[in-house]
Write a structure and sequence with these properties.
alpha+beta; globular
């Protein structure tokens, strides 16, 4: 296992994420995420400022063989946005393209 590739933790604005401990905090308050929400957040964090299409997200988080509705991504993004309020981190929608993580000024 190549430890250089693995980020130990993320600190962006008021958001703190520790993948090894499966911990998410906003303003020192623990935020409870489902496994998929956590995986989605971590994927966005690993690709800052990069627009990720629904297909990219589905392939990465739900595996390529997932044949359900792509709106599952939208639902998880919606839930994540609510849970990350006040963090200074925004998940921006690019209509017809996908999503990207942005830091709010």
């Amino acid at each position: 296992e190549d430890r250089k590739e693995k980020v130990e933790e993320y600190r962006i604005g008021e958001l703190y994420v520790c993948p090894d401990r499966h911990m998410v905090r906003v303003r020192d308050k623990d935020i409870v995420l489902t496994k998929k929400e956590f995986e989605l957040l971590e994927y966005l964090l690993r690709n800052p400022q990069i627009v990720l299409s629904r297909d990219n997200i589905l392939n990465e988080i739900w595996d390529f063989d997932y044949d359900g509705d792509t709106r599952i991504v939208d639902v998880h993004i919606f839930k994540l946005r609510n849970k990350l309020q006040g963090s200074g981190v925004k998940i921006a929608s690019l209509r017809g393209v996908g999503y990207k993580l942005e830091v709010q000024a």
